[in-house]
Write a structure and sequence with these properties.
The complex is a heterodimer of chains A (262) and B (107).
Chain A: H1 4-14, E1 38-40, H2 43-51, E2 60-62, E3 65-67, E4 69-82, E5 85-91, E6 96-102, E7 117-127, E8 130-135, E9 141-143, H3 148-171, H4 181-187, H5 201-210, E10 219-220, H6 221-227, H7 234-246, E11 250-252, E12 258-261
Parallel strand pairs in A: 1-4, 6-8
Antiparallel strand pairs in A: 2-3, 4-5, 4-7, 5-6, 7-8, 7-9, 10-12, 11-12
Chain B: E1 9-10, E2 22-31, E3 36-41, E4 46-50, E5 61-70, E6 73-83, H1 88-98
Parallel strand pairs in B: 1-2, 4-6
Antiparallel strand pairs in B: 2-3, 2-5, 3-4, 5-6
Protein name (chain B): Nucleic acid-binding, OB-fold
InterPro entries (chain B): NA-bd_OB-fold, Rfa2
Main location (chain B): nucleus
């Protein structure tokens, strides 16, 4: 549903997507370490994730991935100041949650009025039946003035969720997370295993380079052109390979005419 | 946290599935009188809004939290003024996703 190429750029640019890193670095160890990522969510998703835990010590999993930090966008429907903290009741159209903001010692922070849309960065917490979002700092809740941010956030929620599903389907079968987002894209069901005659030129070129039989020498541009059945010019294929090279998905080997997949 | 009473984001077309329920609907507002306004939704449907907070609007685009009365009419609970610069195309596409394949994430 989303193009592999743009997906990669997006994941790399925002750092939201967690485990596989667009730069080709090894994914963070799953398990013991808390994932140090920022996941865009809805209240419904967080509530579901908190409820799904067998014990409060379990990690919180959204889209099948353990999460730590979340961001959400919602409307303030209630505000209460309790000593050193302000509790905002937020409605994001999927549900409501309290967001706790601990105040700095140096003076009061101006309260955000009811009815305002805000962006929140925080960590989900559950103490007994009490499930809240703890804002990271007093600056982690901010009033939205451009309402396109609501659209943007919710599209990002959908995107991140779809991306996570792809990563899961790519790495889940063997229990090993894919080493790069490109392998995730390749393993995803929407890229056909037979060289993908309907895919974009980029996907097809990458598929051919990945499946070349020449070992370390890589595959020549000419061979890629031939494998594409002469549908594309040498120049077009070369340009695509350079673009993939710039993205870090392929690299040149013995000369500028031979490419190998990462 | 409570997700038992969502107010889903809907467009004109999906409105009829939410009879009697609370929804959020965004569109271009046209005042009729103090009690009523019409709203052109992101999928180009025109719905009637029975107003709760008067018929004056300071912005072109409005988000109404409203109860659905019928396929083309709602009653306002509250409103947020979205300003004059709101990307209705992107929002429209988002609402389609919310009410179809990405629904599980929202309601």
């Amino acid at each position: 549903m989303y193009g592999g190429e743009s997906a990669t750029q997006f994941a790399g640019a925002t750092g939201y997507m967690g485990e596989p890193d667009a730069s080709g670095m090894k994914p963070r160890a799953s398990g013991g370490n808390q994932p140090n990522t920022m996941t865009p969510v809805t209240v419904k998703m967080i509530k579901g994730a908190l409820d799904a835990r067998a014990s409060p010590d379990d990690e919180i999993k959204v889209n099948g991935m353990a999460i730590m930090n979340i961001t959400l966008v919602g409307k303030v429907v209630d505000v209460q100041t309790k000593g050193s903290q302000v509790v905002y009741r937020l409605d994001d159209s999927t549900g409501q949650t309290d967001v706790k903001v601990w105040l700095d010692s140096d003076g009061p922070v101006e309260e955000i009025p009811r009815g305002a849309y805000v962006r929140v960065y925080g960590t989900p917490k559950a103490v007994g039946a009490d499930q809240v979002i703890a804002a990271h700092t007093t600056e982690s809740i901010r009033v939205i003035t451009d309402f396109n941010e609501i659209t943007y956030h919710l599209l990002e929620v959908i995107y991140a969720s779809g991306y996570a599903a792809k990563v899961k389907s790519g790495g889940g079968a063997t229990g090993v997370a894919p080493q790069s987002v490109y392998s995730a894209v390749q393993a995803a069901p929407n890229v056909a295993a037979d060289g993908d005659m309907n895919g974009s030129l980029c996907d097809r070129v990458l598929f051919i380079v990945k499946n070349n039989p020449n070992g370390d020498t890589g595959i020549s541009v000419l061979e890629v052109v031939e494998k594409l059945g002469g549908q594309f010019t040498d120049a077009a294929v070369r340009q695509e390979l350079e673009s993939l090279s710039n993205d870090g998905a392929v690299y040149t080997t013995v000369d500028e005419d031979h490419y190998q997949a990462v | 946290m409570d997700d038992s009473a969502p107010a889903p984001r809907v467009n004109g077309e999906s409105l009829e599935r939410f009879q009697g329920k609370k929804v959020l609907v965004v569109g271009e507002v046209a005042p009729v009188d103090a009690q009523r306004a019409t709203l052109k939704t992101t999928d180009d449907k025109t719905i009637t809004v029975t107003l709760a907070e008067g018929g004056e609007f300071k912005s072109k685009y409005i988000e109404f939290e409203a109860t659905v009365d019928g396929p083309m009419s709602v009653t306002e609970c509250s409103r947020v003024e979205f300003g004059d610069d709101f990307d209705t195309f992107s929002y429209g596409e988002l609402v389609k996703l919310i009410n179809t394949k990405s629904r599980d994430l929202f309601y």
